[in-house]
Amino acid sequence: MTDQTKSTTIPIHLTINGHNHELEVEPRVTLLDALRDRLDLTGTKKGCDQGQCGACTVHVDGQRVLSCLTLAAQVEGREITTIEGLAGEDGTLNAVQAAFLEQDAFQCGYCTPGQIMSAVACIREGHAGSDDEIREYMAGNLCRCGAYPHIVAAVRQAALEVAS
Amino acid sequence: MTIHDPRTRHGDASDGAMDQVGGRLSRVDGPAKMTGAAKYAVEQQLDGLTYGVLVESTIASGKVRSIDISAAEAAPGVLKVLTPDTIMSLRTASDWFGTPPPDKPYCPLARDITFSGQHVAAIIAETFEQAVAAAAMVKVSYDETPAITDLSDGKAGDGIPIDAMTKEWGDAQGAFAAAPVRICGAYNTPREYQAPMEPHGLIARWEGDKLTVWEPSQWLDGMARTYAEWFGVPFENVRLVSPYIGGGFGSKALALGHGAVAAAAAKMLGRPVRVVMTRPQTFTGYGGRAATRQTVTIGADTNGIIQSIVHRGVNETSIDGMWVEPLGVVTSIMYATPNFSSKQNVVRVNSVVPGAMRAPGENPSAFGIESAIDELSYEVGIDPLEIRLRNYAEQDPEAKKAWSTRQLREAFAAGAERFGWARRTPEPRSMRDGNQLIGWGVAAGTYPVRRAYGEAVVRILADGSVEVESSSIDMGQGTYTILAQTAAETVGVPADDVVVKLGDSRFPRAGVAGGSRLAGVMTGAVYKAATSALDQLIGLAISDPRSPFHTLQANTLVVANGRIGSPRGDGPDLSIAELLASVGRDHIEATGDTMPANSTAEDRYKNYTTIATSVPHTEGDYSRHSWCAHFIEVRVDEDFGTVRVSRVVSALDSGRLYNPKLAESQWKGGIIMGIGQALLEEGIVDRRHGRIVNNNLGDYLVPTNADIPDIDVISVGIPDLHSSVLGGKGVGELAIVGVAPAIANAVFHATGKRIRDLPITLEKLI
Amino acid sequence: MRDFSYVRADTLDAARQASALPGAMLLAGGTTLVDLAKCGVAEPDSLVDITHLKGLDAIKVDGNGAMIGALAKMSHVADHADIKSRFPAVSEALWQAASAQLRNMATIGGNLMQRTRCPYFRDPANFPACNKRSPGSGCSAIGGVTRGHAVLGTSDACIATYPGDLATALVAFDAVVHLGERQIAVDDFFLMPGATPDREHAIEPGEMITAISIPASASARRSTYLKIRDRQSYEFAAASAAVGIDFEDDGRTIRDLRVALGGVATKPWRAHAVEAALKGKVLDEDSVRAASLLAVEGAVDHGANHYKIELAPRVVARAILKTGAMA
Q1: Which end of chain A has fewer CB atoms within 10 angstroms, the N or the C?
Q2: Which uninterrupted H or E stretch holds A24?
Q3: What is the pLDDT of residues B602-652, one digit of tens each?
Q4: CA B710, CA B393: separation in Å to the nearest integer?
Q5: How many CB atoms lie within 10 A of CB C59?
Q6: Which of A65, A75, A76 to mutate to test the interface with C (most CBs of C within 10 A)?
Q7: What is the mean pLDDT of residues B333-338?
Q8: Which of A7, A83, A104 minimises the CB distance to B35?
Q9: Structurally, how many domains does chain C consist of?
Q10: Which of C119, C228, C306 shows the shortest C-beta gap to B699?
Q11: Where residue B6 falls among pLDDT bands split at 50, 70, 90?
């Protein structure tokens, strides 16, 4: 029988962008809500909260995943990287971020952190070999402003820079 | 908020030209958006923040009989359960024209249900998860009555005639009857949704009788007015903060019911409250584009010259709200016709009141007329581009005024050339590649130049940098960037030395960011403020006895790249900072606005908090519009009926572009939303329940990256000083207009099937 | 989401025991379960997290076939070189499913447990009647918006479409689900709705998918997955087909043919009639198109989904022709 007056929380230890965080949360708290509501890491965006838009994309152990369908408790012991962890300590943008800025691959900016996290992984996976491949492997990140052609250009540019 | 980070400067030119108006400067808000540092409205971390979740009606028509909140109230973390009976009483606010409201209470939680998804209760809890869980425990029972589900419902009737939409000249019916060529088509568009990636939501916090609202907003001053009126507090007591907006497309211009609930809850609790709509709630919590029906009949001679257009339109609205989607607005101006008639009705259905979505009116209107003229082209055997040129309107056929500028002929020419239109074979089904039928279509689009008012402060600071402040906003159009360019060019400093602050209603005011009016308004206001600040600076340099220029006895001085000197290059050469230090000033400040000189304080309030004073696009001697022509190639799989857009060339006339890089992005974005409209987007109503069933981004399909080819846009605009201070016309709304008919026309060319109901899904083609 | 407790399983036995308790559910990638918990469809009392179990994510391919651990991620299977070369339809079904992010989360075992996208099933607050969710409550979909619903294998109780891609390929190539020691053919693992649409899989409480095996075959090596949908990507199938062909030594006469359909039926749908009609025949377009019509024998539409009866045979025919033309 669960206590009806107080939710049951559990301690969770998360490693995010190389930093350790101790949290006391209910098991139902998603990684996305832990980042945004508990850790002030609001760069990761909530667009749909049901796995249909890609705005909440983060890396877990280097793989791009959706933080809205990931429970925070599940990723204890994993390396989590968010958009805040991508640029250098001195603020230097990484190749994908710089390419997005140069190619104007964003407008409102709300899907952008998810696009960038997805793009970094897309290049690392080897799925940026052609424009059509980039389009397919970036299709899980919706952009309602319609920056798609510029996103393709930015991923293409960053992939070349990463390769060289 | 502040945008200023010289380490991350990016752009396309190194000679400083990109810093100026018309330069391809990269977005100055880009680095913050690249790194996650940009804090959107509901991302503020506030002490004592609580979380609200809305409970919505599950019937479309009837009354709330009772609400059982016992389980929810007892649930962990719940602080408050609001129902129509327990929420504090608010006052009805005026509409966006500022019409004085009826003196009656407003309750944002409904007892009388007029659509499925209406807010009926709300939970406020210590955490988001607790609020969500408790909201599911609220049990609402209803007395249900039959609903009118949509325009096809037998109970819907013919609707209410909207006389203001009637446009008539000549004898349209008579000329149609006498015309040797007559065509008639019925064109339908479904409910469509703005679906910005950032869902609607806000944080409301009261301090005494002062309210602060962090909310994504296309119109801070208009929304502040509504909150002030709801709560009966002075306008000055409400502060709206909206530094970044995650897309709006028309949907974030007005304060809505969920905002009233959050602000009321915050007042009742004495703690800040955050309410964010779930994605499914964004399909019912506010209105998308209304479903529309049009008939377009055209009478022409055998050379395709139009003699008459008769147009009838209908759009849906809600049971107790009024939304008119003006369906005759492109029909009446795109082509020269001696005889014309357009009328429109509005039909009430059990839906949330529809709202503005990218080019409301122009968009569906163009689907009708631009499909119809394509049909006429096949009827008379004339190329679809040629027939448009034969019927080119040399002046505004409705207003009978000269166009301020109309580069549409140039758009047709440039687009056709780039696309290779001359190689098109005229017969439908005459181009193919294996299983794929290929079709080429063309259509034009237009959007009026709406003009309103804005004001800005420009400060030249002691370190020589320049600061711009305005309560206008940037939801991706590039306001931060073009205002930095405007101030940089006008004062004579690098754009990196300009800090633009937007999105706070404490700043100098601005009207709505809607109808593609903001850029023209705000560049004008900043230009005037910056000019005034520059005049002060030069005046000081010349006249202040402490200034090194004092003895030069110059008539004027020039400021360039942050340095001040004489036009001839003789005499002293100082940085702005050195000059200000020499005269003992820590800053220079000037305000500029785009208002008539004799405006009163009351005029200003009205100008910024309502749209009642917008200047008509046909004011004076000219008719002002943006124009575009889209050339689109589709590939239709003959077996499957799937349509893919494989090539787009669009030529657009938005006048002078303040920043071509950003304008091109907005154009492409409009075209992409048009591709979604043409092929994918449709709110589907379960007619037994009067409810949208595809209320999420997995079922209401918007285009993905894989649906979009490379898009070629060409600017054919020239500066139009009748339209704005610096010569620009509208950008953001224009490009979606005409995309859907261009695709439908291409599909006809590919398949020989004319699809008049959007979207063009595969079952309509197999 | 209702509150629930969270248990991280360290061993397979611990996972089985914990998941056998009333109200307990296994949590793998979470792409179905967390989503359905948010919808209010899944209301677990406890979640047993199996993503930290070791050794269940291996992919082994040899001359006998493929053995894929239940916790292998969809993306890893899709990109596996031997899966691509020996079971191309399996790889194609996987990479055309969902999105790259979801494929990095979802496991192969979890993918088989994926549930329908029927909008009525997914919205209990607005549509209380759903036999799949609440046995005996009725079906909200029948008479409603049915554009995405099934035309094959439906019953008076349920017309919900099985949404997955992978299982469509698996059923074509006689894959086997391993529930520890117990093994069951994929075709038998998925149940027809009949009068009990709440029961979708032949799996008992306390059982857990541990692996999937696919026997090697010449038809699997020459295979294709063709998926047709409104949107180019990130969408479930309007209709899809997994096809494999083995030719006689003349290179034209069909020795073995495998055909399965997705997006049109209540479970992954093997089209035996199409296979039988073409086996022993020389592959040519007319006979393929005629035989493909057998794929929808007995199909029943519910209005807006009628197009699927037209579409599915065309998808099958194209997939057979495409596979036949493979080098």
Answers
A1: N
A2: strand A19-25
A3: 999 999 999 988 899 999 999 999 999 999 999 999 999 999 999 999 999
A4: 31
A5: 17
A6: A65
A7: 98
A8: A83
A9: 2
A10: C119
A11: very low
Q: Mean pLDDT over residues B43-58, rounded?
A: 97
**Residue C276: other Cβ atoms inside 10 A:** 12
Question: Across the interface, which of C119, C126, C310 has its CB nearest the CB of B58?
Answer: C126
In a domain, C298, yes or no: yes
Instruction: Please name the residue that has the structure tokens 């930015």.
Output: A154
Residue with tokens 């094959």: C152
Tell whether A151 and A101 lie within a shared domain: yes
Q: Which residues of B are catalytic?
A: 733
A68-98 pLDDT tens trace: 999 999 999 999 999 999 999 898 999 999 9
* CATH number, residue A124: 1.10.150.120
Task: Answer whether B688 sits within 8 Å of C127, measured CB to CB.
Answer: no
Q: What does the alpha-carbon distance between residue B480 and residue A107 come to, in Å, rounded to a whole number?
A: 12
Contact list, B705 vs chain C (CB under 8 Å) = 233
**Domain boundary residue, one of A53, A85, A117:** A85
* CA C8 centroid distance within chain: 27
Which residue of chain A is at minimal alpha-carbon distance from B243? Answer: A108
Chain C residues touching residue B76 (CB < 8 angstroms): 3
CA B639 to the chain's CA centroid: 38
Reduce the DSSP state of residue C169 to 3 states and report it: helix
CB atoms within 10 A of CB A130: 11
Q: B292-449+618-764, what's its fold?
A: Aldehyde Oxidoreductase; domain 4 (3.30.365)
Question: CB A53 to CB B197 under 8 A?
Answer: yes
Please report the pLDDT score of residue B16 as a whole number: 57
Query: Could you say which residues of chain C have pLDDT below 50?
Result: none
pLDDT score of B9 more than 70: no
* Mean confidence (pLDDT) of chain B: 95
**Residue C26 DSSP SS3:** strand
**For the segment B458-509, what is each residue's pLDDT rounded down to a tens digit?**
999 999 999 999 999 999 999 999 999 999 999 999 999 999 999 999 999 9
pLDDT digits 0-9 by tens, B714-742: 999 999 999 999 999 999 999 999 999 99
3-state secondary structure of B288: coil
> B427 exposed, middle or buried (CB, 10 Å; 0-12, 13-18, 19+)?
exposed
Q: Check residue B97 and give its pLDDT.
A: 92
> End-to-end alpha-carbon separation of chain C, Å?
51
| Domain region containing A70 | 10-85
Q: Does domain B43-146+199-283 have CATH number 3.30.365.10?
A: yes
Tokens of B440: 């080429």
Separation CA B424–CA B378 (nearest Å)? 14
* Nearest CA-CA distance, residue B680 and chain C, Å: 7
Residue B188's pLDDT is 98
Note whether B693 contacts C144, CB cutoff 8 Å.
yes
Yes or no: say if B440 and B746 are a contact pair by the CB < 8 Å rule: yes
Contact C230 B679 (CB under 8 A): yes
CA-only gyration radius of chain A, Å: 17
- pLDDT for the residue numbered A164: 85
C77 domain residue, yes or no: no
| pLDDT score, position A7 | 64
CA atoms within 13 A on the CB side of B356: 17
Residue that the structure tokens 């997994």 belong to: C242
Residue of B nearest to C144 (CA): B686
Q: Nearest 5°: phi and psi at B431?
A: -125, 130
Q: How far apart are CA B257 and CA A75, in angstroms?
A: 38
Using the structure block, give the residue that is written with the tokens 């393709």. A152
Which tokens go with B758? 């959007």
> Which parts of B126-180 are beta strand (E)?
139-144, 160-161, 167-169
Are A120 and A94 a contacting pair, CB within 8 Å?
yes
Instruction: Looking at B250-400, list the stretches that DSSP marks H as alpha helix, in order from N- to C-terminal side.
Output: 257-269, 362-380, 384-390
